[in-house]
Amino acid sequence: MTDIRDAPHVAKATDGRLIRRPLSPHIGVYRWPVTMLSSILNRATGIALTAGTLLLVWWLVAAAAGPTAFAGVQAFLISPIGLLVLFGWTASLFFHFLSGLRHLAWDLGYGFAKPSLNPVTWAVFGGTALGTAAVWITAYSKLGG
User: Fold this and answer.
1) Per-residue pLDDT at 13 exceeds 90
2) 106-122: per-residue pLDDT in tens?
3) What CATH number should be reported for the domain holding residue 137?
4) How many domains are there within the chain?
5) How many CB atoms are located within 10 Å of the residue 36 CB?
């Protein structure tokens, strides 16, 4: 069986003759490094935090506008969609914060060696999960008690 990376691609050289080149790796062959995924998610969580901040501003303006406006925002926030948005905002906050700390450490020259890149990145994912879970468990335990 031939390796998919050896698949030929027919092209023309500068002198006009046909040449056969291997295809570039594609999604079936190439695996994303966890650091690349983390970098993309860091940018996405920055955008999510901006949207969440607009939600916070809406909540604050409604609180200043009066009980009717505030009740409308509160009704949205306790709906399933509102809770999902708040959960995503919480996860984004933790991920962006921890990823920022990782980048700060890298800028100071710590943890940028190849053996420590992936474990530190996985720690960011783990810290995000733990932090988000801790906030939501604490919030629900206070509501129930």
Assistant:
1) no
2) 999 888 888 888 999 99
3) 1.20.1300.10
4) 1
5) 11
Residue 21 belongs to some domain of the structure: no
Question: Do the domain assignments include residue 17?
Answer: no
Residue 90, classed as helix, strand or coil, is helix
134 inside domain: yes
Mean pLDDT across the chain: 88
* Residue 19, CA distances (Å) to 12, 14, 15, 24 in order: 6, 10, 11, 15
CB atoms within 10 A of CB 82: 15
Angle of helix 34-65 versus helix 80-107 axis, rounded to 10: 130
Distance CA 72, CA 62 (A): 8
Report yes or no on 26 lying in a domain.
no
Model pTM score: 0.76
**Rounded-to-integer distance, Cα 41 and Cα 121, Å:** 12
- Residue 138 sits in which domain range? 34-144
pLDDT, residue 26, reads: 64
